[in-house]
Structures are given as structure tokens and as C-alpha cells.
Amino acid sequence: MIFYGNELVQQTLRQMIQRNRTAHGFLFYGDPGLGKKTLARRTAAALLCSGAEKPCGVCKSCRMFQDGVHPDVICAETSGKLGGFSADTVRQICTDLATPPNEGDAKCCFFFDCDKMDPRSQNLLLKAIEEPQDYAYFFFTAQSPAALLPTVRSRIIALPLGPVSEEQCRSALEAEGFAPQEIQEAVGVFHGNIGRCKDFLQQEPIRTVAALTKSAINSIISRNEYTFLQAAAVLGKQREQALLFLTLFDRTIRDAMARKYDASAACIGCDAEGAARLSERLSAAGGQAMHLAVDKAYAAIQANVNLPLALSALCASCMDAC
Ligand SMILES: [Zn+2]
């Protein structure tokens, strides 16, 4: 399977593996949906592979890896309310790493979604990362590189993943069998983020949030506060959806502002048409005020303020701003 985009990162990894000079620790970071885990798994599969073209996909190791039964692959499990890694989990992994690999000459250890990994667990792991066994490799993924302590980060290679081009994204989605019309819709919302486009195509709630965001943008343009409040009422029932709404809404306002200065500016929001119309009536100060109102709503939701309240405050500020 092709891994689209992020050519520089892919090239770095390929060269390391070809020259047999691979780092022992990696952090793949970036927004959700950009393929951090996929690339971590692929790199590990290449290290474990005994074929010529790594990962070959057909050797014993590759087959075990694909079936999720490779004995030299350790995937740290998250636990607790925050979804971090417990001290026990980390200790268990350190113990496991003390014994050499069963199959080839590598043992690969995954720590996915490290944004909630606490400093204590990281410190427990530090020794294993600082002086790794020859065969030990660590793969971390996180949204921000700051998820890991500077002491951990200094011992590993941090690789940022970005979105792919919209064209690459379309190819990736076509290869998975999605229809051109629905692909167009997904790319219009999430652009070069393949994972998020797939979420859009496969998850009704995400399509609903995108539609409500468009409706909110439209209600600002037509000064129909009631429609915005209706959207807010639906979004106010679910925190994750409200947060996604804020992200899409903010990006669309950014598009409207960008269009004031450059009509051909690439869009990052979910409503190119709405952004174009909004840009005609939004002043620079108004756009700034709406950004701030989004920030405020975001902070309020993070602080567990009542969701509908935070969203209706946003609505009032946006109506005032435009
Ligand atoms: Zn192989």
C-alpha cells in the first residue's frame, strides 16, 4: 500500500533503513488523521522484515506483523480515565525488552497517542531509551512534540507529518473505493488530511458537524441568529462534536479573512463558498473578534463550562462582529 505525501520524512526513513543506520527512537507528530501510526507501523515492519525490499509484505516476519501476532512487537496499552500509560505498563515493557528478539534482530515498541503520557511514565522509560539494547526500537506518536519530555525528545528523532496535496488525498480515497462525488465533498471539508476525509466519509456525526458549521457560517452572512442557535443546540449535546465545530468554524473564518487579501488563497476550512461570501462583509477587526470568540468558547469547553451556554455566547459575539 502506498503511503501518500510527506516525501521528505519517507525518504529519511528509507535511507536510514537501507544504510542500516536507523535511530532507536522515533516520534511522529501532527494532527489526527495524517498517518502517524501507519508510518510508525510501516517503519517497524521494515526493521523486522527479512526480505530485500523492506517491508516486503511476504516474508514470515511481514506476515506475522500484518496478522498482528509478531512476537517482537510490543504495543503499549493505555489505561485510566486520561488514557495515558501506567507505570506498570512501562515497567512490564522494560522487562520484556531485556530479553532478545524471538525472530529477527529487532524488537519494536509502540507508544501511540502520547499526548496524555505523564512525566512519571516517561521518566521510567528514559533509561531504556537513553541506552537502548541494540535490538530495541521505540515509536511514539502525538499531536504535539511537546507531549514528550525534553529529555526523552533529545534521544529520539522527531518527524512532523503534514497534510498531503488534495490530489494525493483524492487518489488515496479512490484507491479505497470511495465514489468521486463523495470524495469531492470530503476533500472540501478536510483537504489533504486523508484520515479525516475517511472519517467524514464513514462517520455520520462528522458529516453532521460539517453541515452545521456551514449552516452557522451562512446564518452569520444572512444575519439569522436563530439558525446559528439551532445549530448550537444540536452541537451542545456532545463535547467532541462541539470542539470539531469550533475547529472547522475557525478555519472557515480564517479562509474568509485570507480571501480579503488574496481571492485565490487556498482554503483550509469546510465551506469555500461560505468563506467567499463572508469575506465580502467581514472587516479585519470583525474577523479578529470572531477568532477571539472561538478561542473563548474553546477555553470554556475545556474548562467544562455548560456547552450550549459557551456556543450561544459564541453566536452572540459573531453576530456583533459581522
Ligand atoms: Zn518482509
Portion of residues in helices? 55-70%
Main pleated sheet: 5 strands, parallel
Output mean pLDDT.
Answer: 95
Question: What fold name goes in the CATH topology slot of the largest domain?
Answer: Rossmann fold
* SS content category: alpha/beta
The count of domains is 2
Question: Gist?
Answer:
The protein is α/β, with parallel strands linked by helices.
What does this structure look like?
This protein is of the alpha/beta class. The chain has two domains: 7-160, P-loop containing nucleotide triphosphate hydrolases (Rossmann fold), CATH 3.40.50.300; 203-321, Zinc Finger, Delta Prime, domain 3 (Up-down Bundle). It is built from 15 helices and five strands. The chain has helices at residues 7-18, 36-48, 60-66, 87-98, 119-130, 150-153, 166-175, 180-190, 194-202, 204-221, 225-235, 239-261, 272-281, 284-302, 307-321; strands spanning 25-29, 73-75, 107-111, 136-142, 157-160. Strands 2-3-4-1-5 form a five-stranded parallel β-sheet, with helices on one face. α4 links the parallel β2 and β3 (107-111). It binds zinc ion (ZN). Zinc ion binds at residues 49-51, 55-56, 59, 61-62.
